[in-house]
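Q: Hi! Curious about what Lipid-A-disaccharide synthase N-terminal domain-containing protein looks like structurally. Here's the sequence.
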Amino acid sequence: MMRETLLEFDLYKAHVVVNLWKIIGWTGAALFGLRWIPQFFATRRAKKVTMPRVFWVMSVTGSLCLLSYFIGYRADSVGILSNLFPTFVALYNLFHDLRKGS
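A: Let's find out. The predicted structure is below.
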């Protein structure tokens, strides 16, 4: 079911196949990349470098999506290792942010 093709099309010279695993991977990549937008605005508002809680939530969610994509779909050790460490760091920081209650 997860590998079942939902949509298939050509985009310029690339052939794109969409399935649930790819949606999970794209969601993870988008969350992990876009997490810098709320960080940018929080830093501007505070007039000092700050990491808002949403940054850590997006980091954890994005990392877990990417980790599951690389484990469940790609079976890619490079992708697994490159997302394993950020997942633990983001979880650690989110835990401490929630603990301090800010």
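A: A fun detail: The helical segments are 20-34, 36-46, 53-74, 77-100.
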